[in-house]
Design a protein that fits this description.
alpha/beta; Rossmann fold; 2 domains; 6-stranded mixed beta sheet; 16 strands; binds guanosine-5'-triphosphate; binds magnesium ion
Length: 383
Amino acid sequence: MAESNFVDYVKIYCRSGKGGRGSTHMRREKFCPNGGPDGGDGGRGGHVILRGNRNYWTLLHLKFDRHIFAGHGESGSKSRSTGKDGEDRVIEVPCGTVVYDAETGEYLCDVTDHGQEVMLLKGGRGGQGNTHFKTSTRQAPRFAQPGEPMQEKLVIMELKLLADVGLVGFPNAGKSTLLSAVSAAKPKIADYPFTTLEPNLGIVSYRDNRSFVMADIPGIIEGASQGKGLGLRFLRHIERNSLLLFMVPADSADIRKEYDILLNELKTFNPDMLDKQRILAVTKSDMLDQELMDEIEPTLPDNIPHVFISSVTGLGIQALKDIIWEELNKESNKIEAIVHRPKEVVSLRQELKDMGEDGDFEYEYESDDDDDFEYEYEEDLDD
Ligand SMILES: Nc1nc2c(ncn2[C@@H]2O[C@H](COP(=O)(O)OP(=O)(O)OP(=O)(O)O)[C@@H](O)[C@H]2O)c(=O)[nH]1
Ligand SMILES: [Mg+2]
């Protein structure tokens, strides 16, 4: 997995900038020797901001830049000059990125739309200069406010692809073949299980220039929830889909049983998955004749729509697209806001290890005498 270009999990260190210190400057000039305080405010520390960008499909670019530092605010100076604000750091992420605290597992935020900006860490406010603390009884305050501290966090960024329809099936069910038949995507297809090792997305055009996005994920087998096969880690890429297309090949020994196994694995992964609308496609139906289809039909689950398809001959493909389109547009199938559950701290360490992200990385913590954040003026305001 480490060599793959499809990166959907990274750990990075982020730090916002601290606020600049307010100035304690006193104005002293030739004809104005006691000009009073004229210290300006410190600048704001830079924020760390996430921005959704639909041109990114993975988190690969973050692997090469695991330390995100925003700039510190500069100190204020004489003549009421305000210090320069620290530079913000904007991290471009693919739409569907979810961020967790890498130490506590707490869910922090997610970015779902192109151009959407989310503040991950706020820069410290700049301290006020001594001009703010001048009062009638204290004309020469020799103090100013320090800037607010920076914030730092080790975060996990996880990508959950955003697609309309997710393909669910055993390895070899014909998922990738369907995707290549209905979209321009070119996933690898072969006659052995686990051909697909990472998710593929395709845009399926529908009538009148409309389209929807289909996600082909690696096959699931019985016991995947216990880590068999490729496990269930890719299921999170269909967690946000509004529709799941179950695919069972026509030559399966027991179509109904295969469907039930898939359903059960999904449930183990996340019970909410069962709330999604499902469609069943019996794939490779070019191997069936009408008589066989009539025989199979009554054994299929009767609570969801089904269709016999063949990605090779095109049988049932338009009918399938029609059903998908119809279901996608039903009000009841619109995705509701997703509740992101925090990660469990106990399993977090193992998870990081499994994802190859458990390495410690070095970063230098800058020490600075500005680091004591006592607000000096408060205690002697009543002089
Ligand atoms: N006859 C027939 N064969 C098909 C059809 N669709 C797929 N196949 C064959 O089934 C095999 C598996 O197809 P894939 O699309 O790679 O299956 P997959 O579900 O993506 O498999 P994994 O990526 O391993 O999970 C390939 O040899 C395909 O040529 C079909 O409609 N008819
Ligand atoms: Mg495949």
